Amino acid sequence: MMLFGGAVCAVASYGLLSKGFSNPSAGRERAAPIVDDFNTGGWRVYDYHGGLEGSTKNVYYPVTWEEKGGVNDSGYVWGDDSRWRIDTPESPHSILAFIIYRSWLKKGPVDLRNARLSVHFRGDKLDLKGSRVYFWALSNKLGTRWHMKAKPLAVPEGGWSERQVIVLEPDEKLWNRSWSRYPNTPASLDEVLRECESYGFSFLGFNGEVTGKFAMDELVIEPAAKP
Ligand SMILES: [Ca+2]
Predict the structure, then answer these.
(1) Cα(73) to centroid of ligand 1, in Å?
(2) How far is ligand 1, taken at its centre, from the CA of residue 38, in Å?
(3) Distance 66 CA to ligand 1 centre (A)
(4) Is the pLDDT confidence value at 2 over 90?
(5) Domains in the chain and their CATH numbers?
(6) How far, in Å, from the CA of 71 to the mean position of ligand 1?
(7) Residue list, CB under 5 A from ion ligand 1
(8) When comparing pLDDT for 54 and 100, which is higher?
């Protein structure tokens, strides 16, 4: 079953092709899946002003990479409260615990409309302070971030979650626009997902700064086929 052409070998080991990833769009153009197996690190943790009140400086700390201990004892990454900070310009306030810009990888924007995302999370002494974890997407050019509020993701304590799957449906009822650099002309969800330049996972709904260790592994994003 050749869902992704030449990239099929890269994802076959993740079991995607045999676990409900149907292929209703055979024959239509589909971008290669984005596979972060974290066997070489990557990603960062966002501290929106580095502790300097009034600063507009953005601080991105590297995640910690572990060679083993992830899913099937593979490599994985984690961040903790020594690196993240509550992002107060966001509504509601967020903590952008995991963040990546495509430009860091020297790659252009990606169309995430109707993409299928899967990921594993783990918490260790993670106190969510009543929050949950959500996927978010950003268009830097249009200066707008949306969070997929309808699809919170689980973070089990002391062990890895199952592979969690969400479909990034471009339906604004399922999302919350949490920030815009241009409040009078924020970008629509469709615009942000169509040319997504940055994405990641946030804590939302906390009653204080989330503390502890938050780990991620085997993130796979499969762009939808072009209509
Ligand atoms: Ca891994």
Answers:
(1) 7
(2) 5
(3) 9
(4) no
(5) 32-222 (2.60.120)
(6) 6
(7) 37-38, 70, 74-75, 217
(8) 100
Q: What is the pLDDT of residue 11?
A: 38
Residue 56: Cβ-neighbour burial (10 angstroms; 0-12, 13-18, 19+): exposed
- In this predicted model, what pLDDT tens digit does every residue of 165-214 receive, in sequence order? 999 999 999 999 999 999 999 999 999 999 999 999 999 999 999 999 99
Beta bridge partners of 117: 166, 221
pLDDT in tens, 15-41: 344 344 445 555 677 889 999 998 876
Q: What is the DSSP string of 83-150?
A: T---BTTSSS-EEEEEEEEGGGGT---B--TT-EEEEEEEEEEEE-TT-EEEEEEEETTTTEEEE-TT
Would you state the structure tokens that stand for residue 178, as one six-digit string? Answer: 């949490």
Q: Cβ neighbours of residue 121 under 8 Å, at least 6 residues apart?
A: 133, 153, 154, 155, 156, 160, 161, 164, 201, 214, 215, 216
CA pair distance 135, 201, nearest whole angstrom: 5
Instruction: Report how far ligand 1's centroid is from the alpha carbon of 70 (Å).
Output: 5
Rounded distance from Cα 65 to ligand 1 centre (Å): 10
Q: How far is ligand 1, taken at its centre, from the CA of residue 75, in Å? A: 4
- 213: tokens are 């260790």
Tell how far the Cα of 104 is from the centroid of ligand 1, in angstroms. 20
Closest CA to 66 of 74, 58, 57, 54: 74
